[in-house]
Amino acid sequence: MSQHTLDARRLLCPLPVIRTQNAAKKLKPGDTLAVTCSDPGAESDIPAWSRIHGHKVLEIKHDRDTDELVITIEIGEA
Amino acid sequence: MTKQRKAVALISGGLDSLLAAKVMLEQGIHVEGINFFTGFCVEGHTHAIRKKDREKPKRNNALWSAEQLGIKLHIIDVIDEYKDVLINPKYGYGANMNPCLDCKCFMVSKARQWAEENDFDFIITGEVVGQRPMSQRRDTMNIVSRDSGAADILVRPLCAKNLPATKPETEGWISRDKMYDFNGRGRKPQMALANEFGFTDYAQPAGGCCFLTDESYAKKLVDLWDARSSREYEMDDIMLLKVGRHIRPKPYFKLIVGREDGENRFMNGYRKQFDYITTVSCPGPLVLIDGEMQAEDVEIATRLAARFSKDKNSDAVTVCLHLRDGTEKELTVTPLRNEQIPQEWYV
Question: Which residues of B125-140 are buried (b: 16+ CB within 10 A; e: fewer)?
Answer without folding.
Answer: bbbbbbbbebbbeeeb
